[in-house]
Write a structure and sequence with these properties.
alpha+beta, extended
Length: 181
């Protein structure tokens, strides 16, 4: 009995998944080309027309815009409910926090782009994370600087400092890099 090898197993599994979706990827590539009005005229004779009037891109854009408008006009397009009495009391605050985080993460724009991708490739993939990052921030003096300035004492000068922040991040995944098999 041969010894089990994880690298060999993973390689063969990836090859099997890739082979299984070859036809789907061909369909996705063709759909993206039609969406971007890119057509292959190499098989046409010189006398045949090479003009195309595709309504596919306009239809996809209209579809995404209608759904986005419906979500914006609805104002409440998701609900948070608690199961226990304590959770039911916390639900409105959590809803407001989620609205804030989704707004900062620009969720509606990313989701609308996802709707376009779903209309073209029949697959929407969103990656939702809560990463940390460092960025420069301007450190202004303490709260009492206004009081010190009123007494004739010069407040401390602002300085640049590194701060660690975190927040909701939503990314649209490339369907060619997502395996659902």
């Amino acid at each position: 009995m041969p010894e089990f090898s994880y690298p060999q197993y993973l390689t063969s599994t990836l090859k099997e998944a890739s082979d299984a979706r070859t036809a789907q990827e061909t369909l996705w590539r063709d759909a993206w080309q039609v969406y971007h009005n890119q057509f292959d005229y190499s098989k046409k004779a010189g006398w045949q027309t090479k003009l195309r009037w595709s309504r596919f891109a306009g239809t996809i854009e209209t579809f995404a815009a209608i759904l986005k408008r419906a979500m914006v006009q609805a104002r409440v397009w998701y609900v948070i409910e608690g199961l226990s009495e304590g959770d039911k009391k916390k639900a409105p605050l959590l809803k407001k926090l989620c609205d804030l985080w989704l707004g900062i993460a620009n969720f509606l724009v990313i989701f609308t782009d996802g709707l376009k991708m779903g209309g073209i490739a029949d697959l929407i993939g969103l990656k939702v994370t809560w990463p940390q990052w460092e960025e420069d921030d301007l450190e202004v003096g303490a709260v009492g600087d206004d009081l010190l300035a009123g007494l004739g004492v010069a407040p401390a000068s602002p300085r640049l400092v590194k701060v660690t922040r975190s927040g909701l991040k939503v990314e649209l995944l490339d369907p060619f890099k997502v395996w659902l098999d």
